[in-house]
Automatic annotation (TrEMBL):
PROSITE patterns referenced in this protein's UniProt entry, alphabetically: ABC_TM1
Recorded topology in the membrane: Multi-pass membrane protein
Compartments where found: Cell membrane
UniProt keywords, alphabetically: Cell membrane, Membrane, Transmembrane, Transmembrane helix, Transport
Annotated TM spans: 73-99, 119-139, 151-170, 191-216, 251-271
Family per similarity comment: Belongs to the binding-protein-dependent transport system permease family.
Naturally occurring in which organism (per UniProt): Paractinoplanes deccanensis
SUPFAM superfamilies: MetI-like
InterPro entries the UniProt entry points to: BP-dep_ABC_trans_perm, MetI-like, MetI-like_sf
Record domain ABC transmembrane type-1: where: 73-273
Protein name: ABC transporter permease
Length: 287
């Protein structure tokens, strides 16, 4: 490392190494225990074993019959994927209008997008439930207990965040590209599809992944707005964990295996779009 970089280092090297090791240990030790516990037997985990006396994948096979995990994962994938795609596309088009056009109420909408992030989800649970119940009564539609009802609820919270992410990103895109396309006769839709969307792909991926995680990690709304056949993976995992409380032998190994299985789609999502995440979170547009 150069002398100038060494001089501007915020922490001394020994302290930096120690802090890095501690942070890594805080992450890796719990994850290692979950993995080892999932490969252990329920009796071994209950007795306090950290290192399994014998490794077995039995918990990964039992969990599909012990808990209704397959139905929950399918429901979560469908709802969260639709929320991510719809939120990313609608957020991009909405942000484009807010950034490129001036109209009455534009600043109010932008401020509202920021203000909506401060509203806790627990505060909105009852109003959303009453609204969906009223829609079912007056319109004759079944909203509560359906996947699309949960999708609408998730989109309500994901869309403001996705729109604000895209507003921040689109402000950095040069207008010259769009102006050159307009001189060639391109319409607004063509500009969006061939210029804005490709250049904004990192930010679109970021907003889509955050919308996906919002639905994947949610338990509160999913437990209220679904029924057994539409339960998400988080709700299925919660029901499975609650049902084991007070049992003669809690199936800790199976609970750890179920937690790892539910976390796997998110891990794969991050690994797949890792380079887009870095670009979307650090770049402010095309320089």
């Amino acid at each position: 490392m150069s002398a100038s970089a060494e001089a501007t280092r915020l922490l001394p090297r020994p302290m930096l190494v120690t802090l890095t090791v501690l942070l890594c240990a805080m992450v890796l030790v719990p994850v290692s225990y979950i993995v080892l516990a999932s490969l252990n037997s329920d009796v071994g985990v209950a007795s306090g074993e950290f290192w399994p006396s014998s490794f077995s994948l039995e918990s990964y096979t039992k969990i599909w019959t012990t808990a209704d995990l397959s139905t929950g994962i399918v429901n979560s994938l469908i709802v969260c994927a639709c929320t991510a795609v719809a939120s990313a596309l609608l957020g991009t088009t909405t942000a484009y209008v807010l950034v490129r056009y001036s109209f009455l109420g534009r600043l109010t909408i932008l401020r509202g997008l920021v203000g909506l992030q401060s509203i806790p989800g627990t505060l909105m649970l009852l109003p959303v439930f009453v609204l969906f119940s009223s829609a079912g009564n007056y319109l004759g539609l079944t909203v509560i207990g359906t996947r699309w009802g949960l999708f609408v609820a998730y989109l309500t919270f994901a869309l403001p965040f996705s729109t604000w992410v895209m507003v921040t990103y689109l402000r950095g895109l040069p207008r010259e590209l769009e102006e050159a396309a307009r001189t060639e006769g391109a319409s607004t839709l063509v500009i969006l599809w061939r210029i804005v969307f490709p250049l904004s792909l990192p930010a679109i991926v970021v907003s889509g992944i955050f919308a996906f995680l919002l639905g994947w990690n949610d338990v509160l709304f999913a437990s209220v707005l679904t029924r057994p056949e539409t339960h998400t993976a988080a709700v299925a995992l919660q029901i499975f964990g609650t049902s084991q409380e007070g049992g003669a032998l809690p199936v800790y190994s199976q609970m750890m295996a179920a937690a790892l299985i539910c976390a796997m789609p998110v891990v794969l999502l991050y690994l797949t779009f890792q380079r887009y995440l870095v670009g979307g979170l650090t770049a402010g547009g095309v320089k």
